[in-house]
Amino acid sequence: MSLNTFGHLFRVTTWGESHGPAIGCTVDGCPPGVTLSEADLQPWLDRRKPGQNKYTTQRKEPDEVRILSGVFEGKTTGTPIQLMIENTDQRSKDYGEIAGAFRPGHADITYHQKYGIRDYRGGGRSSARETASRVAAGGVARAALAALVPGLKITGYMVQMGVKGIDRARFDAVEIEQNPFWVPDAVAAVEWADYLDALRLSHNSVGAVIEVVADGVPAGLGAPLYAKLDSDLAAAMMSINAVKGVEIGEGMASAALTGVENADEIRMGLDGPEFLSNHAGGILGGISTGQPVVCRFAVKPTSSILTPRQTVTQAGQETDLITKGRHDPCVGIRAVPVGEAMMACVLLDHLLLDRGQTGGVRGRIG
Amino acid sequence: MSLNTFGHLFRVTTWGESHGPAIGCTVDGCPPGVTLSEADLQPWLDRRKPGQNKYTTQRKEPDEVRILSGVFEGKTTGTPIQLMIENTDQRSKDYGEIAGAFRPGHADITYHQKYGIRDYRGGGRSSARETASRVAAGGVARAALAALVPGLKITGYMVQMGVKGIDRARFDAVEIEQNPFWVPDAVAAVEWADYLDALRLSHNSVGAVIEVVADGVPAGLGAPLYAKLDSDLAAAMMSINAVKGVEIGEGMASAALTGVENADEIRMGLDGPEFLSNHAGGILGGISTGQPVVCRFAVKPTSSILTPRQTVTQAGQETDLITKGRHDPCVGIRAVPVGEAMMACVLLDHLLLDRGQTGGVRGRIG
Amino acid sequence: MSLNTFGHLFRVTTWGESHGPAIGCTVDGCPPGVTLSEADLQPWLDRRKPGQNKYTTQRKEPDEVRILSGVFEGKTTGTPIQLMIENTDQRSKDYGEIAGAFRPGHADITYHQKYGIRDYRGGGRSSARETASRVAAGGVARAALAALVPGLKITGYMVQMGVKGIDRARFDAVEIEQNPFWVPDAVAAVEWADYLDALRLSHNSVGAVIEVVADGVPAGLGAPLYAKLDSDLAAAMMSINAVKGVEIGEGMASAALTGVENADEIRMGLDGPEFLSNHAGGILGGISTGQPVVCRFAVKPTSSILTPRQTVTQAGQETDLITKGRHDPCVGIRAVPVGEAMMACVLLDHLLLDRGQTGGVRGRIG
Amino acid sequence: MSLNTFGHLFRVTTWGESHGPAIGCTVDGCPPGVTLSEADLQPWLDRRKPGQNKYTTQRKEPDEVRILSGVFEGKTTGTPIQLMIENTDQRSKDYGEIAGAFRPGHADITYHQKYGIRDYRGGGRSSARETASRVAAGGVARAALAALVPGLKITGYMVQMGVKGIDRARFDAVEIEQNPFWVPDAVAAVEWADYLDALRLSHNSVGAVIEVVADGVPAGLGAPLYAKLDSDLAAAMMSINAVKGVEIGEGMASAALTGVENADEIRMGLDGPEFLSNHAGGILGGISTGQPVVCRFAVKPTSSILTPRQTVTQAGQETDLITKGRHDPCVGIRAVPVGEAMMACVLLDHLLLDRGQTGGVRGRIG
After folding, report:
1. Which chains form contacts with chain C, at 3 or more CB pairs under 8 Å?
2. Residue C143, φ and ψ in degrees, nearest 5
3. Rounded Cα gap, residues B352 and B332, in angstroms
4. Is the sign of the CA dihedral D130, D136, D142, D144 positive or negative?
5. Nearest to C89 by CA among C4, C136, C23
6. Taking a C-beta distance cutoff of 8 angstroms, is the pair C326, C93 a contact?
7. First to last CA, chain D
8. How many CB pairs under 8 A join A and B?
């Protein structure tokens, strides 16, 4: 990874600011011959698109992705795929306040300190808008994964919003696409709506936890020790705006477990070894076990809120700042498709890495 | 990062297995002219060294580090620094059982599946012994940081072991070096001793949470978006054996906060802006704020335990496995110096990266 | 370097095909605060632009570059700079012949063999058109270099076309911009015109040697051993389409020299050491000496010619192929600004790398 | 590539100085299951070993390589392979003169300028001794290539020494191992002996051109545009000490060819397309054609000679320097096995890269 690029063989370089003419990414290293068109990518972007309900920013962006290179006659050519999304709703407005003062909890101040200059319009490069590029790249990764590992399936959903968690006993995957929170629990979906409404009306915002699960990941993806599958997943998820924590399997809760409890015992199944539990989240020693890969990450509450917060201006004057504008009360909602996209990119990258080093040959058991 | 290398400019490549002749690492990109000798590195290694008390493995390793290159007349030359630690206590024993069967919760099975071959002696490459190389590399990073950022201080300690947490009201940094758990709470140190004794005697093990804090980190380190300081810290900590979760600042708990609570408000101090809180853990938008950088990670319980667990052999036969040998009942204890080392490496790397891109110039406030 | 990216800290990722909607590149790692606009880049692109005289392809491309990100209020922000050049003259024509048969000496066949698919329109990704992106990136590098190393000057020119070389006794830098060949020798310029006319009319093409010199490069840029300044220059120049050889200083001719002849003797000047000759081409041990950095590369003759050549079709049938279309009789001419651009990118990259590792401090002499 | 590492997937990081305790390298990314022992590597090192005849340095080094990691029960495990070669003949001597003055044509001055410190003993990091590590790594690459591409064969030899070239009409591969110059021309071998004797006795040295040919390279290795096979070969060869030029196929001579001459025409053979010539040196568009890959590089004359040359001291005083010690009169001789090793490393790296991206599938012809 280097500045604005992630991945080893399947490499994604994103570019663009919230209020520039466009954002996008270059996807390099994609296998050739994968069927791909804008129509394959657009549905993923539509899931992340702003303005779809009252719980996300009201910015109106079609988020139409264009493929500018790397695809010929409907198939990837193995050369870089340039994806571009034009910014159409950069509302003409007065940025005077944000231009001069730093939003508490926001990257305004650090961008200024590091670079001595920042594109303050809509958060510039630090805007969550950048994640549209990730979702587009994730769409390419999904297309390649579909060709290479037909059964692989990636599903993201919210498991916590603010102080409200889901009840895993009510877990229903079908529910995920039925509510604005991507929450797999119909009861929670109703409760959360009230909860978030209240927060929004009180000019506040709230954090969230997203879980992303990949089923059908073959055993053997990953690498010791600094390109471990979990190490790369951690970097990928932590690179998403506002993420403050990443967990694999039991995650932070594994600290409270004993070795007896945590051991995922193994039995022989019809097709090889089978685990009796998945505390490991599908990864042991940085390498996939063949079980579902389970990753969670926490998104902090949106820092742009209508409640005044103490801060300073670039000139060094103390002030109270209210952030107007069209901000998500829970930016974690739109992080769900982003987390899925990062999972797709990391898995494809490791599939290619593994194929490169080992040729995909697997050690036999039994 | 690539397989066994981490870092962008300050790059560490580790090598070696638990029971081979030696382990070590190549440290590339270190600034020249840094005062460095084995005596500067050994104290850090001694902190991680096994066999120091009954709570860590009884393997007897002097862990003497040798500098084989890159240092001339007591100073680094800017060329690669090779650090080697000989393995002296690879006890001659029968590995028959581990050689044939896979420890539940251990990387045995995934190494076999991926590579079709594994050095099963003492865990081979997946042994926690590899972390000695990280600590040695961290010692080099600390020496360079001491020269470049005199006030910078890195402190690691345990905040949770199993179900036992510390009481932050009793936090006492002096206490950290006074007990075998690196715990900054004298009362906890006593309780934890009993707790771990009981677990050990019942042939069990337990997980832990380690917190690493870096004070004196200048504002402006980090980079958007995939080489964010927090993204690289997450990758670095997750690359440590047995780590299953990583948090920055509030971490997973940030999900439960509101935007009003989470905003680290800013006032002007004598030397520039000052934050009234540090929910962010010293990082906003992937870039350091100048506040303490706070990182936590969870270590799962040691998988090698004396309690029988169900597993399979390489031949595909089901069996119950007891892992004999000299294993840490809480491998999290020895992860404290390792976490510190990773923090040191990541911070130095980002210091060099920042100096490369910006020349170290900072945007003014006031 | 990785597939379509080059550079360590100043990283350029190019994308796009000859006949797609656009080509471009992402420039990552540029220092912040550099004055930059499209007007700064366009002159460099205009020098490479096709159709400027009868010796280059008659394709009519305005090659207008747009900056889509990374620049705010006329200055670079330190975030990725996306440069896009639309393809406007993708002449609608029948590609039937090239689509089916492989041009001898061209990448048609290897792209097909590697990827099983190729965008044959105008050569697709292997078209010299890709070099426009390099020139644009080079323009960014020049702007940054101008800010960081004011006296640095990069000059490229042709020293050989086919069997015709320049007479170094007539070397006149002013002449370079006065003729269509970028040749610093007025007599040669006239002769070469006749020579190339004859070749063109006989449906043939010819190779060339380009020399690129950088004056004012500070001592100390480069790094042992695989990121040597000359190693990176060699990779950069060899990555240009049709380049088959790269030389530093005496280059291949150094083989014929003795150690006595080749020693660039050193005397003390007013500002430090001075070399009495520059056989080394400004680089010793991979690190710049402070003398002019001298690099040469050979460009093979254009493979797309009107003379029939034996080849095979994708279906495996033997055929004779004439390549119609608008092809440069000496593609080396337009390689001059490309070579300059690569020199600029490599030097800036090493300037940043050096600043990162050493802070730019230099060992004193005297 | 980054400082002291080269390669994308098959990555080699070398370390060590001429007169430190040892030199070596870490080889990361090697495929697992490759048969490997010290006995497989030693023969390659013996070919490069100093002191084998009067035309190479008389330093007596056994150059015994030890494998410290990454191999288990005679097979590679897929984890990093550490190779170490102890320095045994660091003759205790007075380095006073070289310590204080800079050898003209040597890296002494640039290392000092860049780092402000240098290990002057025997040239330190810039010593040709570092190439032993490359040869060891090349031995690993050869072992892996032998397993993956059985017919692949790499042969290096000298084609020019000083003003003396070989007569290609007398080319005899058997001759290469029969003379101290690795020259495939028995007549030249005799002439060169006299020529070099005379140069050596007159306290002089001389340059050389080495050609390395790889037969049996499958079509399809390489990648556009900055990880082209030729671009990586150019970087690899230019990274060898004292190399000043690199050529692929016709190399610099391609400038003098016409398109008609340079076209490698294609016919259908029994096993697919066959080229009627190989001006391209087996690479088109950065991708291998299936023909022999042909690379040449020029090595400048040894700068350490007994003839006095003008230079300056670190204190800034002018002086005449004679370099005593055990130096090769033609360092190009020992560069032959080094060039072969670099070719092996680059080819294996690209084989793994290609397998990663494409799965090794090839586009059909016929």
Report:
1. A, B, D
2. -65, -40
3. 30
4. negative
5. C23
6. no
7. 38
8. 436
Q: Which of C31, C79, C355 sits opposite B224 (nearest CB)?
A: C79
With beta carbons less than 8 A apart as the criterion, state whether D69 and D80 touch: yes
Task: Give Rg (Cα) of chain C.
Answer: 21
Give B132 to chain D, closest Cα distance, Å: 15
Burial (CB count within 10 angstroms: exposed 0-12, middle 13-18, buried 19+), residue A39: exposed
Distance CA D354, CA D341 (A): 20
Point out which residues pair with A85 in neighbouring strands: A23, A65
Complex-level ipTM beyond the 0.95 threshold = yes
Q: How far is A109 from chain B (nearest CA, A)?
A: 8
Helices D332-358/D229-238 angle, 10° precision: 150
Higher per-residue pLDDT: D323 or A165: A165
Residues of chain D found within 8 Å of residue B118, distances taken between Cβ atoms: 72, 77
In the three-class reduction of DSSP (H, G, I as helix; E, B as strand; rest coil), residue A181 is classed as coil
Residues of C in contact with B355 (CB under 8 A): 355-356, 359
Beta strands in D141-239 (DSSP E): 153-161, 164-165, 208-215
Angle at D292 between CA D291 and CA D293, to 5 degrees: 110
Whether B77 sits inside 8 A of D3 (CB atoms) is no
Q: Is the omega angle on the peptide bond into residue A83 within 30 degrees of 0, that is, cis?
A: no
Residue of D nearest to A32 (CA): D358
| Cα dihedral value A37, A40, A42, A43, nearest 10 | 170
C82/A28 touch (CB, cutoff 8 Å), yes or no: no
Using the Cα atoms of residue A244, residue A246, residue A247 and residue A251 in order, give the sign of their dihedral.
Answer: negative
pLDDT tens, position by position, D190-239: 999 999 999 999 999 999 999 999 999 999 999 888 999 999 999 999 99
- What's the CA gap between B84 and B68, in Å, rounded? 7
Return the DSSP state at B220: T
Distance CA(A61)–CA(D237), nearest Å, equals 51
A243-247, A300-304, C143-147: the lowest-pLDDT one: A300-304
**Nearest residue in D to A358, CA atom:** D31
Cα A327 to chain centroid, rounded? 18
- In angstroms, the CA A230 to CA A217 distance is 13
**Identity at B196, one-letter amino acid code:** L
Place of tokens 């080889």: D27
**How far apart are alpha carbons D254 and C218 in whole angstroms?**
33
Burial of A167 from C-beta contacts in 10 A (0-12 / 13-18 / 19+): exposed
**What is the token pair recorded at C245?**
């050889």
DSSP, res B362:
-
Contacts of D29 in chain A (CB under 8 A): 357
Q: Which of B2, B5, B15, B112 to mutate to test the interface with D (most CBs of D within 10 A)?
A: B15
> How far is the C-alpha of B105 from the C-alpha of C134, rounded, in Å?
50
**Choosing among A14, A108, A157, A284, which should be mutated to test the B contact, i.e. which has the most B CBs within 10 A?**
A284
pTM: 0.97
SS3 C102: coil
Which tens digits make up the pLDDT trace of C179-228?
A: 999 999 999 999 999 999 999 999 999 999 999 999 999 999 998 889 99
**β-pair partners for D258:** C206
Residue with tokens 């003390």: C268
State residue D207 phi and psi, 5-degree precision: -90, -175
Q: How far is B205 from chain A (nearest CA, A)?
A: 5
pLDDT given at position B91: 63
Give one word for D182, left, alpha or beta, with left for phi > 0 and alpha for psi -120 to 50: left
Any bridge partners for residue A75, and if so which? A35, A72
Q: pLDDT per residue over C112-170, tens digit each?
A: 999 999 999 888 999 989 999 999 999 999 999 999 999 999 999 999 999 999 999 99
Residue B244 has phi, psi (to 5 degrees) of -125, -5
